[in-house]
Amino acid sequence: MKRILSMPLAATLAIAGAGLAPRSAPSEYPAHAYVGRLAVAAAAISADQAKKIFGARIDQAGYVVFEVALYPEAGSDVTVSLGDFALRLGADGSTMRAAEPNVVAVATVPDPAFDQPKTPAKVHVSTESTIGYESGTYGRPGGVYTSQGVGVSNYPDPPPPPPNTAARDHARDQLEQTLADKQLPTGLITRPVAGYLYFPKPNGHARKDAGYQFSWLGEIGQARMTVPLPK
Question: What CATH code would you report for 10-113+166-227?
Answer without folding.
Answer: 2.60.40
